[in-house]
Amino acid sequence: MSVKTVASIVGARPQFIKAAPVSRALAASFREVLIHTGQHYDYGMSDVFFQEMEMHPPDFHLGIGGGTHGEQTGKMLMEIEKILNAVKPDCVLVYGDTNSTLAGALAAAKTQIRLAHVEAGLRSYNRAMPEEINRVLTDHVSALLFCPTDAAIENLAKEGITNGVHRVGDVMYDALLHNLVLARKHSTILEVLGLEKRTYALATVHRAANTDDPARMNAILNALGSLSTRVVFPVHPRTHKIIRESGLSVSKNVVMIEPVSHFDILILQENADCILTDSGGMQKEAYVLGVRCITLREETEWVETVHAAWNKLVGADVNAIRDAFETWHPSGERPALYGNGQAAGEICQILNAELS
Q1: Can 206 be counted among the known catalytic residues?
Q2: Domains in the chain and their CATH numbers?
Q3: N or C: which terminus of the chain carries fewer CB neighbours within 10 A?
Q4: pLDDT per position as a tens digit, 242-271
Q5: Interhelix angle for 214-226 vs 237-246, to 10°?
Q6: Catalytic one among 206, 236, 240, 307?
Q7: What is the DSSP code string of 224-246?
Q8: Taking a C-beta distance cutoff of 8 angstroms, is the pair 205, 278 a contact?
């Protein structure tokens, strides 16, 4: 029997993390062709992650970063389609909700190759978010939908999608369990920054709804500056550009640093008193690590973390952010929401069965 080929498409930092455990699992039974769109294209946001995650270098690196959403997605679609026509994989695997995800999904649909979506079924129900459009469209052209939670399965059922749906757990949980062990061995970020456990907050801001709106970005910076603690702020390149070009001020207690490695960010998360973020992945990681999370959005696709009372939605409201930080301290149970850390293995078992 010939070895089946899976074309995995990644392009942004969270996707490298999600793809790593799946790539390790795929290696036992499949030939994997890794396509990197280049959506995150500087060393600090891309290359270093492949090294840390012990992933093989991409077989194809498209170098498509920047531009409008439509321009970026269109260019990716054209180039991915060429690769799929040349490689002729048995399945295309996409992750999450980025422009790379949608471009890969559309390319698979156009070339009539079976599509599998990891993190299927997530919904914020805010169509103003580019990520929401990407999620919905990708799910509706997928043959295999790998859901992290029961809520995701319910979301798909509401849209009439029930075939090919599998609850496998969350590959980010797989990655966290694997990488946290390595991070504790190798990261020196606390020493480098002179930090002690639970004496600082960690902030990340990268969503376009925040970074591309100077008023919201200014409100978030003002809120961070009002907190009674040191705030460590690894700054996404787009966020840094907006702050600089808009002339926004940053208070002295907010320590802006360059993007850090995945091992470093895990250690910063694990030891923080609080995480303030608009990242979806970081909301989950905070929950698993038992660190309170204040989400700088009005909605989240990870609603179960809010229902469990370990995540609070505050948007970009200065008073709401400050009040949550100063007065809110969750203490309830943290149910195992995201599976048993074996999602990657389950995905590969299903692919084996479906592609045989």
Answers
A1: yes
A2: 5-170+339-355 (3.40.50.2000), 178-327 (3.40.50.2000)
A3: N
A4: 899 999 999 999 999 999 988 999 999 999
A5: 100
A6: 206
A7: HHHSSSEEEEEPPHHHHHHHHHH
A8: yes
